[in-house]
Amino acid sequence: MAAARFVERLNQQIAYEFAASQQYIANAVYYDAETLPRLAAFFYAQAVEERNHAMMMVEYLLDADERVTIPGVAAPETAFSDIVAPVALALEQERRVSDQIGELMGVAREENDYLSEQFMQWFLKEQVEEVSSMSSLLAVVQRSSDSAMLIEEYLARESQSAGADPTAPTAAGGAL
Question: Under CATH, which number does the domain 4-158 receive?
């Protein structure tokens, strides 16, 4: 059903999404160890979100009756020089994922794989939000790095769960 080239690239993207989830867990653990619970909670939530992105891709491939590859991932970065470094790394990661999602969209379009192109639409929208959110957080962390409690207050004030996005693709295994 899906173009072979798209399936190959989507399986690669599953690895990137799982790696992003692992990196966000490492970021969260770092902040937990620094007794910054709001920053830790933010990154634990991001880790679940990235894992769910991978599982949405898995579900799409299953629904399309295509082969799914669950790859191993490299160990995440776990040592950071200061409280800014994990957020800077996260923004870099989100920008890279945005490029990867754009490339996936391009493959679907080149292959005239309209169903896969439509599937990728949600991820494009999601990446705009992810980059924006991480850019804002990085600006706050950079400005307030000498007073981490200001960052914690910012997250307490600004972090509001928007709830599930009804337009999001279904994740394999449901919303675990």
Answer: 1.20.1260.10
Query: How far is C-alpha 149 from the chain's CA centre?
Result: 25
Contacts for 86 with CB less than 8 Å, ≥ 6 apart: 26, 27, 30, 31, 43, 80
What is the domain partition of the chain in residue ranges?
A: 4-158
Q: What is the CA radius of gyration of the chain?
A: 17
Q: Provide the 8-state DSSP code for 80.
A: -
- By C-alpha distance, which of 52, 130, 146 is closest to 98? 130
pTM of the full structure: 0.91
- The total of other beta-carbon atoms located within 10 Å of residue 72's CB is 7
67, 19, 113, 62: CA torsion to nearest 10:
30
Structure tokens at 15: 């690895």
Place of tokens 């798209």: 6
The helix/strand/coil state of 120 is helix
How does pLDDT run across 84-107, given as a tens digit for each residue? 999 999 999 999 999 999 999 999
